[in-house]
Sequence to fold (411 residues):
Amino acid sequence: MTKQPTTILFVHQNMPGQFRHLAAELAKNPAYRVVFLTRREGVTMPNIVTARYALPEAPPPPAEPLVRSIAQSAHFGSAVAKAAVDMTKKNIVPDLIIAHPGWGEALFLRDAWPKAKIVTYAEYYYQAYDGDIGFDPLFPRTLQGVCNARIMNANLLLSHEAADAMISPTHWQKSRHPQFLQDKTTVIFDGIDTERAAPRADATFTLGNGQVLTAKDEVITYVARNLEPHRGFHVFVEALPKLLAARPNARIIVVGGDERSYSPPPRGGHDSWRSALMNGVDLGQAADRVHFVGKLAYADYLSLLQISGAHLYLTYPFVLSWSCLEAMSAGCAIVASDTAPVAEVITHEQNGLLVPFFDSSALVASVCRILDDPALSQKLRQSARQTAISRYNLADCLKQQLAFVNSVLAT
Fold:
C-alpha cells in the first residue's frame, strides 16, 4: 500500500509571511502535502494547496478597552476554527501545523485538530520593561499601557501553550518569552537569500525625476516598512538637517510607506508619522536632495542597497527587521541603533557602527566617519556580508528548519 504524504499546514493571515521559504522548500518534496490557510486573496505558491478562511464582520467592541484585543483574537481564532471544520470535511487533516499566533489564528488549532503536531512562531512577547514599552519618551510607560500589553499576551500565551514546539528568528526575541515557553523554543532565522542580496558594482537606482544614481554618488539610505517611531523615523528626521549640512553632495533616499506597522497613531490630526514629523521641518534648498520613494519593488530595493554609501537602521528593542540583514548581505556600511535586537547581529566597529538610539548627532558623526574613511567602509561592508553569509544564509537556515520540522514530526 502506498504511503500517504504527510500533510503540513501553514497558517498566516498574510500568506506567506515568515513561512515563504520553508513552505516552498517543503512543497518540493513529494513526501509532503503542503497546505496554506490564509485570509489573503490572490496569492498562490507552486505545489501548495491554498485554503482561505472568511473573516466575518466583527461584532461591536467590548465596552472594557482592556478586553478588546482578546475579542479580536477570538474573532480570528473562531474564523480559522470554522475553516478547519470545512477542511476536515474535504479530507485535509494536518499532521503538522506551523502557525503565526499574532492575530489569534492559532487559538483553537489544538481543539480543531487534536492529533496534529503544532509549531508556533515566537516573534514577540510583550513585557513592561527592557522592550519597546516605555523605551521612548514619546510614549511614556503607563499602568494602562502595561496592563494592555499583558492582555495582548493572552492570545500568545494560549496559542504557544497548546503548541508542541516553537521557533523564533533571534535569540533576543526568544528571550522575551516566559521561561517555560523558551524551554520549547528553537532559534532559527527565516533566512536571507545572500546570493540575491549581494554587492553589485554596476548597480544603479533611478529617481523619480529620471536621475540615475550609482555607487560613485554619495548616497545615504534609510529603510523601514513604514516610517514610524518604532523604526526610529523621528530620530532620522531630527538628524536630517544635520546630515544635509554635513554632506553637501549627498542624496538621501528614504524607503517606506505612510501606514503604521507598530507605533500608535500620530497626534495633531496627521494621517501619517511622516506628515507629523516633517511638518515644519525646513530643509531649505537642500530639500531637493531628500527623496521619499515609498515602498519599492524588491529588485529596486536591492539596487538601492547596492549603491548605498551609508545605510541607517534604527529600531526600538523590538522585532529585528529583515531589512537590517538584507542590507548586511548586500554589503552595506551600516550605522545602526545600539539596541538589543541589533546588537545580536552587529558588533560596533566590526560589521557596522552602533550609536545610541536617540542621539541624532552621533548618528550624523558616524555617517560622516564611514563616508570619509574608505578603508573603514570597506572593512564594515565585508564583515557585514560575511556575518549574513555565515549566520543567516537562506540555504543554511532552510537546512536547520527542515531538521526542526522532521524532529517535531518524529516526536
